Amino acid sequence: MTNSDKDNKVSYNGLNFVPFITHERIQQRISEIAAEIADRFHDKCPLFLCVLTGAFPFAADLFRQTGIDSEISFIRLKSYNGTQTSGNVKELIGLTEDIKDRHVIIVEDIVDTGHTISHLLDDLRNRQPASLSVATLLFKPESEQCGVKPDYVGFNIPPAFIIGFGLDLDGKARNLRDIYVIEKQGQE
Ligand SMILES: O=P(O)(O)OC[C@H]1O[C@H](OP(=O)(O)OP(=O)(O)O)[C@H](O)[C@@H]1O
Ligand SMILES: Nc1nc2[nH]cnc2c(=O)[nH]1
To answer: What domain count does the chain have?
Structure first.
């Protein structure tokens, strides 16, 4: 059950979350990243590769706002149960496009431990793209364990569990307009 109280907290599965990044700040930052990508790729017809499920709202806004000749495709990877990574990246829907000699921009909602993106980068590098970039809305530099440095980062954030704007807790909360962070002990 979801409920909002007067402080705009939300609760899912017995966990409380507090407001963290507003929809307006998210949109502002996406438009800045879109401008950088448009500048670099305007004559390269890049292929945006959205990593489902969490990245779909970010990918939609970024793809639309970049506004250059480009294409989008989707893959589905999963490794999290609740607030914890299983450490095992499962491919639920694979890549169908030939990306040889294409400029590929992977679009992620979050790079946390880095396991998902590093698994994907290893796979895609073998397919010989012309270039491979990573755009992530959120990055947790203190949690990253695989040496991944995303090319485009919306927000660097501390190592705390986040929901909203695509990010879920066991499938819920993806439709929140804003981003929320888990409430710290003693913060309630
Ligand atoms: O850097 P990592 O620690 O690997 O975490 C990042 C991954 O975790 C989330 O996916 P999740 O497995 O929750 O699937 P979802 O996108 O379907 O929610 C997110 O969308 C990233 O793909
Ligand atoms: N919802 C959610 N999914 C994640 N996957 C990796 N880190 C996170 C996080 O902080 N929140």
So the answer is: 1
Residue 83 Cβ inside 6 Å of ligand 1? The answer reads no
5 assigned to some structural domain: no
Domain extent at residue 125: 23-81+90-180
157 lines ligand 2 (CB under 6 A): no
Q: Which amino acid is at 43?
A: D
Whether this model's ipTM surpasses 0.90 comes out as yes
Are 38 and 30 a contacting pair, CB within 8 Å?
no
CA angle 118, 127, 100 (to 5 degrees): 130
Where in the sequence numbering do the catalytic residues fall? 112
Asked whether residue 15 is domain-assigned, the answer is no
Q: pTM score, two decimals?
A: 0.94
Question: In order along the chain (188 residues), what is the average pLDDT of each group of 10 residues?
Answer: 65 96 98 98 98 97 97 92 82 88 98 95 94 98 96 98 97 97 81
Task: Round to whole Å and give the CA distance between 49 and 73.
Answer: 5
Q: How far is the CA of 134 from the centre of ligand 2 (A)?
A: 17
Q: Which of 134, 163, 130 is nearest to 57 (CA)?
A: 163
